[in-house]
Amino acid sequence: MKLYGNLLGKKRTELTQKMERLENGLQKLQTTASQVEDLKAKLAVQEVELWQRNTDIEALIAKIGQQTDKLNQERAVADAEEQRVAAIQAKVTKQQQETEEDLAKAEPALQAANAALNTLNRLNLTELRTFPNPPAIVTNVSAAVLVLLAPQGRIPKDRSWKASKMVMSKVDDFLQALVNFDKEHIPEATVRCVRDEYLSDPEFNPEFVRQKSSAAAGLCAWVINIVRFHEIFVLCEVEMKRMCLSQANADLAEAAEKLEAIRKKLAELDSSLETLTAAFERATSEKLRFQEEVNRTNKTIELANRLVKGLESENVRWAHSVAQYHEQEETLCGDVLLTAAFISYAGSFSKKYRRELLDNLWMPFLRSQKMPIPMTEGLDPVLMLTDDAMVAQWNNEGLPGDKMSTQNATILTNCERWPLLIDPQLQGIKWIKSRFGSRLKVVSLGQRGYVDVIEQAVVAGETVLIENLEETIDPVIDPLLGRHTIKKGSCIKVGDKECFFHPGFRLILHTKLANPHYKPEIQAQTTLINFTVTRDGLEDQLLAQVVNQERPDLEYLKSELTKQQNMFKIELKLLEDELLTRLSAAESNFLGDNVLVEKLETTKHTAAEIEMKVLEAKVNEVKINEAREHYRPVAVRASLLYFIMNDLNKINAMYQFSLKAFNVVFHKAVEMAEACEDVKSRVNTLIDCVTYSTFNYISRGLFERDKLTFTAQLAFQLLLMSKEIDVRELDFLLRFNIDHSYVSPLDFLSNSAWSAIKVMSFTDEFRGLDRDIEGSPKRWKKMVESECPEKEKFPQEWKGKSSLQKLIMMRALRPDRMTYAVRNFVEEKLGVKYTEGRKTEFAKSFRESGPASPVFFILSPGVDPLKDVESLGRKLGFTIDFGKLHNVSLGQGQEAVAEVAMEKAAKEGHWVILQNIHLVGRWLGSLEKLLERCCEGSHPDYRVFMSAEPAPTPQEHIIPQGILENAIKITNEPPTGMHANLHAALDNFDQDILDTCSREQEFKTILFSLCYFHACVAQRRKFGPQGWNRKYPFNTGDLTISVNVLYNYLEANAQVPWEDLRYLFGEIMYGGHITDDWDRRLCRTYLEEYMQPNQFDRKLALAPGFVVPSNLDYQGYHDFIDEMLPHESPVHYGLHPNAEIEFLTVTSDNLFHTLLELQSPDAVMGEGASQTLEEKVKTILDEVLEKLPEEYNMADITSKTAERSPYILVCFQECERMNTLISEIRRSLKELDLGLKGELAISSEMEKLQTALFFDNVPDTWTKLAYPSTYSLAIWYNDVLQRCKELDSWTQDLSLPSVVWLSGLFNPQSFLTAVMQSLARKNEWPLDKVNLTVDVTKKFKEEFNQPAREGAYVYGLYMEGARWDTQAGVITEARLKDLTPSMPVISVRAVPNDRHETRNIYECPLYKTKIRGPTYVWTFNLKTRERPAKWVLAGVALLLSV
């Protein structure tokens, strides 16, 4: 409200002033035109009066002539007398000259004497007197002075120093005596005495005497020069000549008296002539004045005409402006309202939403009121508050030239609340620092003494910038943020002090966080301004950068032109203002004011000149822009790359990159690109070079699993930009929303593959695909069952489809091969270098680092990247021994050590390694500031290397953006595959270790088995939950310690203690990591398989065809692995080959899901899309709500029966759970619906729900109330509806269904427990002595029409890792590509523990989903003919949903 009031007042005043000035100007121009006629009449009268004046002047001239003749006669007499006087004068002059010449000869001596006296003063004479017994020469000087000063020439006898001091005792009198000394009448005897006794002494010389005393030197010079003067005076008989001169002067006086009388007479005549002449001059000046007046009137008429003519264009323009201003006056209230709203609320939004707010929400709302608020059509709030000149000035100060930045600057300069800049790329802060210069006080919260700086600024009325704010703000500045003033608004609390609150004080807040979440009160106290760089804004900056490097001449011209254009805009504005100011300030009759009119003309002339220059500049600008535009594709590509790079933190919060760092990469890439002759090929080279350099820069900091995601995203985005692929097709590929209700008619296609093909066949691009596959199944089967189908050609005309369409078909047919297919796609579109995946040497990455670009290692288990740093340090002379490498492993209390090391290293140019910085979360903020501070003005050799583990979830990520984004990120990952892992395990040992044990053969063979076991447990992680239920950080330490234990036990025991060793390795060394019982069983089984007595006789096969080797040397073992180890396969780990297919399918699904989330919703919707994001979400929302069943009426259901058997209770519980879920789905969707309609404010929960619906994910709030599931939203929702149907039939009469769909229950454990309870009650067995037993029937659900007599029949189970042989009734090897075959109906009964079958049994865990681990339900004992260990290693389990 305050902003609105102030803005309205300000704008109203401005408008009134502008109108007044323009109206005044217009009125002056009208007045000018009407005044011209009056001036012409005035001119005629003036000309008559001028003629009269001319006649009077001629009469006066005749009278003056007569008087002049009389005067001339009298002047002749005077001249004769004057000649006589002159003769006498000449004689006198001659005599006087002679006398003066003689005197002049003596003059230098006299001046020298006076000069010598000038050097004397009270001070140095007093100083001279203080000499107790001075040097002889000083005594001589003073004696000579005594002789000269002796009265009547009586030469004193006592000329001692004492006598001299007596004379000098009265310093002033002494000085006076010297000054007034009668130099012309010195007695001859005195002169002689001085000459003979003193002057003859060679030391009697001022220069010599000065060494003793400056006063004595002055006296010495005076004596010498006085004597010299006297001698010249006597020699030239000056006295005689003076007497002759006085006689001649008397004669001259007489003659002069006579001449004076004649002159008096002349003067009288002269004065009468002067009177006449004065009259003449007065008349003449009157005539001139009149003449001037006539001229002036003429000139004024001419000027008025010029003015009216000259300002004709202004006359029209101003009249138009006044009319506009009158219109503006009417719409001012509405315009200012909109502008105030824009300043207050639009700042935090992106460009798109700002436009949306203004055009689609606020304007229509204001117009739709009962009393529509008047507004200017298509109002731009920026134009309300700025003009070209102001924007031009901002651009000169470094504000980016795009519209968004201009809006931001407008909001910043006009907002009432303190501005808070969201500025991840630091563009806003750069402009602010340049704008305010040294007047700006820059602080960051928490730096030393920042409160004092703020306090001084508050008092002095300065501007303070608080930079790099986090999401929480120090309470110290709360009073300032909220402007909580005290003492009637004159004071405010800063820290614990009350300060005078200067009205000129301004506070600017700034954060680097890209998406900060501030508390509502912060948002209320500040105006948020989103300075995040925009695509077009960045494009322009990068264009300037590339042109600057490629054509510096052009860019210089361009920036000079821009500056010049901006200066012209500013100058034109000033000139226009000056013109108006002069006009409005002029008097009512301003035509007489020539200066004003001429200045108006000059202003007009200058304006016209500038307009010409502007046009000229515009022509040049067009030419320059044409030349610059050749390079635009480079900037467009680079801008896209930056935004792709900026989105990578959605994959992992470690992937943060700054614009500053990107600019450096861009700059280097442009420098490195090969030179070309013509611009076109140069531009293409640049695009390739920039893309590849950025790709390399990003890739080395990504985990292997994310590299393909990034490369694919890069390829898709580049192809979308060049319109080579269709956004709808890409969206289909990434979402792959398939209706899974079709049954495959072909044996080589699974149901899900056939469902995908059927759904695709409904689209134009794939119409007829299903018919073609059914029509020629052999050709399609050959392709589908090929080992590398992605390299095969598609049958029939399908081979001619686009690469993207082939990817879609491949995803339907062989989802497990999609990672390879996508890699091939990238290779085809971008080139092979984007898929090679070569590792960058550390030395090369190091060359790119600098004091301000630290190196950041993202750690993986089992890898130590800092070895690279140490080895490079040894080459370059940076080692711990030389004191040039500081290695700090962070943990409790190590922060101070790190700080000292960094401060020292920055000064002296050392390297600092900071290991595991993720362990000191609280210190990381300080580290960020320390890194910034240390790199300023540091030694050029100073480097920082950091390492940290990535957080397991985004919520746990703690490493500040500021540390990550400027660092060069490098990932190091352990090797993959059995071959690499087995070599790596062996690399931890050497020949010496193999030779240490006295029982060589046992030691070596068991060590080899251990290495294989280590490689197995490490690499098994790759297969996800089928490998290990949970992830464990097994590392080389486990292996080396196990080998130590092995050595000790072999040395201490005669027999190999197999049990002990297996226990130590499986339960303690490796088992120490394991938290899941099933994983513990797996680890134990591995050791039982790989550590057996028969391994010493080369009878133990670790993998099919890979037998434990006999006694070899160290190198021999490595060679044995290379020769004998079969190709990589899940079989190495005891898994079925299907595990690889499952792993690849999951990987490719994750790849596409991540890619989908990386697409910006706007991009996914596409340019030509018929729906906006909100509309799409609304469609999904309506569909879900439409199908959502009503909640179960629990009162009705519970009243159907009084019985409360275990099964009925399970039914009730399931209904209640379903009710909770349904009501949450309904509530959240209705809330979101209101939010989308604009009737409710969108909360972060609603936003999360909207995103989940858009990306086909199940929202978190629903998942919490539902059951574990890995489905996408569409399939999950169908599943929920199926479960409802099942419950509907169960609640009908509450009798147990003939076959229970176990997977359809929220809590299957409770049902299985109910089975036990029912039978225990029926047979009166104690519940704790009862166990479940299962019998797998040979029939499927449809073949049962009544429930089991004992226990229950259940269905909906699947087996993973093996299959059930229905005929034989045992677990057997799975069929290839049949990953999760379904189980027949299972009969579940309870039996007493003693009747429990234990032989030929595999204890098979039952899980709810493929995630296994936390979704464990029960253990079913299944019959097996094979050893159970086989199924343990194969990770065989039953699943309730797949």
Essential attributes:
53 helices, 25 strands, elongated, five-stranded parallel beta sheet, alpha/beta, 1442 residues
What report would you give on this structure?
- With 1442 residues, the chain is an alpha/beta fold.
- The chain has 53 helices and 25 strands.
- The strands form seven sheets. The chain has a five-stranded parallel beta sheet with strand order 2-3-7-1-8, sandwiched between helices. A five-stranded parallel beta sheet has the order 10-11-12-9-13, with helices on both faces. Strands 16-18-22-17 form a four-stranded mixed beta sheet.
- Helix 19 (535-550) packs across helix 20 (552-585), helix 30 runs antiparallel to helix 31 (818-830) and helix 39 runs antiparallel to helix 40 (1036-1052).
- The longest helix is centred in the first third of the chain and has 117 residues, at 2-118.
- The two termini are 59 Å apart.
Summarize the entry for a quick read.
By secondary structure, the protein is of the alpha/beta class. It is built from 53 helices and 25 strands.
Specify the oligomeric state: single chain
Distance between the termini: 59 Å
Percent of residues in beta strands:
5-15%
What would the average pLDDT be, to the nearest integer? 85
Class from secondary-structure proportions: alpha/beta
State the shape.
elongated
Largest sheet strand order = 2-3-7-1-8
- According to DSSP, the number of beta strands is 25
How many distinct helices?
53
Largest sheet: 5 strands, parallel
The portion of residues assigned to helices is 55-70%
- Give start-end ranges of low-pLDDT stretches: 1164-1169
Rg value: 53 Å
